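New to this. Help decode the following:
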Amino acid sequence: MELVELIILIAVAITFSNILAKIIPTVPIFFIQIFFGILVGLSSYGRTLNFRPEIFLVLIIAPLLFREGEHADLPVIFKNFGTILSLAFGGVLVTLVAVGITLHTLMPTIPLAACMAFGAALGPTDAVAVSSITKSLKIPPRVMRILEGEGLLNDASGVTAFQFATIALVTGSFSIWQGSWRLLFASVGGALVGIVVVWGKRKLIRLIEQLSAQDVTAYLLIELLLPFVAYVFSEIIGVSGIIAAVVAGVMQATGRQKVTLFQAELANVSTATWNTIVFTLNGLVFIFLGIEISQVFSPIWESDVYANWLLLLVIVAVTIILFFIRFIFLLLLNLFSAKKSKAKSWQEILLLTFGGVKGTVSLATIFILPTSLHGELFPQRSVLLFLTAGVILLSLIISLVVLPQISDGEAEVPVDEKGLAILSEVKEELKVDQLDETLTENEQIALKAVIQTYENRMWDIYTVAMTESERQEVQEIQALIIGIERDGLDESFRRHEIDGNTYRFYSRFIANFQHSVGQQILSFLAFWLLVVRRIIRVILHPKLFFERRQNAPKQMQPNDLNQIKKVYLRNTKLIKQSLSSLDGVYDEKIIAHFLEQRQNMMGQLELNDFMAAVMIRQDPAYIKEMLRGYYLERKVIDLFETAGTITTFAANEYRRKVNLLESYAMGQTGNLPRVPFFRKI
């Protein structure tokens, strides 16, 4: 039962790490996961947890590297093959030797083979960690492609080198020539196994198709089994299971796929499943890092075997050696290339140097160290785990601090002008539809709401193109508006200026707006304004909270609308005053957008259309007009593609988005209420 509870606890930790990463986007998710891992490790469940190295290899490293191989951009890798190959193999070898000798010099009691294994574990770079750090930075595409390609290859080379160093540690002997031959045999043999496994999978799929037994679940399970089959079979015959998993992933991605509805459904399910698995496995590694830190920190720190200053010195020295060796290696490679200006070359070298952070694979690899040697406990294993954790953390912190300073600033996404043009054309077509005198009053209101939806989508395109800081400003202003709306509504109710019906109607409007904000990635300040203030409000005014929980009436009465107008007008004045006072704090264009949006809402309210436009979104007439909008959107995309305004690739991407929106809209039709939410006043 304890194992089940531990699994649930770790699953909860991974889930909440993802949520917190969205709330606090400035903090990389792996730091949050390490923190949660420490908390788990300090619990009674974590203290009894023991890691089995072979399970770590087959259940975590193999599927992670398989997926990396499946996502490998082979043309890009071949384009930068010289640099990537040098870093992936030459860089790992140099790192292994330099770090191993450094550690053995500072801590001579640790066997040289164990020191070399430590160096091999710190050879691979973590592309996921780099992406997390640089997601909001402007990094040249070539640098990111090199880091991703290097990450794919040096994961395999680093783990394979680590395995041979571990063999030398266990057996006590090692021959450079014998080791080189075994490494070559293991690498080539592993690659062949990966190819054979994928070939066998394709034959099996073909047999299933001939038997007319196609099934998405079965196909997905077969794909999920590939890295495990490749790894286990390779280990049985004595070749590299890691390289087999990587090659299997590459081969899996290179196969030709038929364009059928079945394949499309399989691709969607497979992508979603693999994304979840990869995120979970990466999270597991950093959770385990936190658990391991909590388990080994006190014993190592309080031990008399190694002085604490020596442990810190080793962590700092090894981290410096890692970056220094990488810098020198890249500098030598750059001497053979004169393709770029000196300034650009220096920037590229520095970005590649500090982009070589250590993470998932390094940590997962060091866990493979045997717990015993020659029938006795391996006493230095805990020390090596502690040092690895320290080096990983320090390298992540250094990169987190240095990369923003040497990059070209915040990442900027160009505004999708073509997408804006498509949505604008659809909006104009819908405005023409409004002139149709045969439309019912309900259909007119639905049409206005659909037009508003397209205007919101156009604003979303602008939002996506904003920098991280600009997006946070938008979210914080939205959270501020919601806070003012809530406070104004509660104050009106406490003063008995509105009744319970009006209070619940207006609360529903605020809830709809808050839901749209909640679907975005909130900054920490926005989260504070939305959630913490709401908790305080519930504690101070529980009566208002329970009043809001009651069901609103089905229809709005004339008196309700008059009361809503008064509350909305008062809140609008407060919001305008608040936004005007923020000039110089937030971007003027963003503030102007919200002021204009508020003014438009006031106009709708004066025409008695505002609440109707909110409530109509639950009406079948709204779904009908939305489907009309999607039809027009496809039509405009076709016209733009035919005219050469957009490429076929771009047109297909726009169509994919329309299909997703339409599928979601159709899925909502079964959840619509059977009675109207309002009647026209």
User: Anything to note?
Assistant: The beta strands are 372-373, 376-377. Confidence is low (pLDDT under 50) at residues 518-526, 670-681.
